[in-house]
């Protein structure tokens, strides 16, 4: 294979983009770019989809790892600023947990499969391809980051931000509902401590026939037993979680007859 450096792209021809013409994508890229909602020049797109196993078999071809490195940082920034703005009441620890879940291999590979259908586009070496590389979560996760990186290189942060939102906002909504509900009871304890209050307790009542019992939980504070939240459910745990959620919101808005102890 000749290693001449084509100068089609004028002054922008750089060594890492040599021979990309020899690596056309396995399938036309229209649907992928439509799913991303942006354009990426062919050379850069090929780089973003080239696994190191393919580059190893085709010397002179760049793999996606530099773009992935960049895309990882862009993704982390956009997710962080989004969570920061959306959840003013959350601690750094809670935000970090949500971010970790949102940008996890599991989350990103799901986006690659369900939103981008990226598998068929990936350029893999023979061994990796035979080994099912196009559906490996670790590779699919990398590809999402590399495509975000390529978008940033070509269009800058604003367009990259739009692409990240298009891909990940659904995931952010999911982790947000799991967020404080990491467990409302835990969140309520944290909130009470922040306000200088003691740990809430729960008073339970059961009503209804045995085959259809309804549990009512009241979250109470202090010796006076001030009720700060009430919830019902088909089990003790569900009722307590509902009461904890109501109590958390009450404490969060200051809508309770309780004073903090500073």
UniProtKB/TrEMBL annotation:
HAMAP family: RNase_III. The keyword Metal-binding applies. Its main location: cytoplasm. The active site is at residues 72, 145. The keyword Nuclease applies. Digests double-stranded RNA. Involved in the processing of primary rRNA transcript to yield the immediate precursors to the large and small rRNAs (23S and 16S). Processes some mRNAs, and tRNAs when they are encoded in the rRNA operon. Processes pre-crRNA and tracrRNA of type II CRISPR loci if present in the organism. Its cofactor is Mg(2+). Residues 1-26 are annotated as: Disordered. It is found in: Cytoplasm. This is Ribonuclease 3. Homodimer. Coiled coil: none annotated. SUPFAM superfamilies: dsRNA-binding domain-like, RNase III domain-like. Residues 43-156 form the RNase III domain. Belongs to the ribonuclease III family. It is an enzyme of class 3 (hydrolase). GO terms for cellular component: cytoplasm. Its EC number is 3.1.26.3. One of its GO terms (biological process) is rRNA processing. It comes from Bifidobacterium pullorum subsp. gallinarum. It holds the Pfam family Ribonucleas_3_3. One of its GO terms (molecular function) is ribonuclease III activity. Mg(2+) binds at residues 68, 142, 145. It catalyses: Endonucleolytic cleavage to 5'-phosphomonoester.
